[in-house]
Amino acid sequence: MSKFPSFINKAAVAAALCLSIGTCTLPTATADAFDVGGSLGTIINLGAQYAYLDKQLNYIDNGGRNEYMQQVKDKYGVDETERANTMLASVMSRLSDSIAVTDPSIKQKPYNYFVNKDTSFNAFCTVGHNMSVNIGLFDKLNYNENEIAFVVAHEMGHGEKGHAIKGVRKSFPIDLLTSLYASQNPAATAQIGAKLASQIGTAKLVTKPMEVEADEVAFGYAVGAGYNIGAGAAVWQRVLDRIDTSSSSGVSDLFNDHPTNISRRDKYNTKMSAWSGNVVKVDTKTGSITIRGKEFYKPADTTDMSGKEQAYLIAGNLSAVYHNTSKPAGNVWTSEDNLLYVGEQPIMSLNSVANASELQAKLQQLL
Length: 367
What we know:
The chain contains 15 helices and nine strands. By secondary structure, the protein is mostly helical. Among the domains are: 6-67 and 171-194, no CATH class; 228-367, no CATH class. Strands 1-3-2 form a three-stranded mixed sheet, sandwiched between helices. The protein is elongated.
């Protein structure tokens, strides 16, 4: 793919055809005539400027990525909450190991990461495998590691696909690039880094296709790391339930270039069902969980979580039972801490279930 904007390529091709083939009729020179020489000079100059930008970005993405990370930390602030930092370290380790199965290069260029002080629902991955999670995301997801893992996996998807670099090349201000190139300022890398840091979280550097691609690969990363396969749908159900885009939470502005929350939930729900061999399904309207088309359970809302959000997490555990087999082995049983199991796979807590023994018998029958 070309490194330069399409209008540069088209203009250059047109000019080259005129010069080499000799079939173009150029207008007589007048005060308002098209200046081929001047235009070619502009095109060449812009090409040099974008080559200069690429050189700076390559440094920020590799050898200078730790310096850039410090700029990002300085801008957003580092949150030292122990619970959040411990959980993020666990998530990053597990997801990195999952990614390494198909991309061993992650071991040579591991992600830098930190928890920042922003209280809104967000996380980001910028140039250089540098990423951060807002402390607000931990709070709003109630420190649910499975759900947090899917959000982080999405951001790592951006990193693995190089979306940040592509976004910068597309949106970097021409006037600033021209100024930096003209001055050949030794501090240009720092200035470019500062500009990148200022755009983090504004949805200016990513496109909707990039978001779709990041969601797609995030599913594989999170599942490969052993997280609950239903957590992807559960995240977006929670956003719909508690972080509504019409509120003052900032999610509307943040996700204005993203797929809708409903479409993201539904795609993850479809993926979860397919992973179970289409045995386990969740009705997106009612939150009812079915096994082979027969109703198993419809969770009720609690103060911490809606019934629908619970349904996706329970169905995710059930999907693990049916993955690669239509007839799972193992009995249904309840542990001393009141967790319902199928074999070694935990399914759900029975603490808030009125007729726990009946539900256990029902699951055994549906298996």
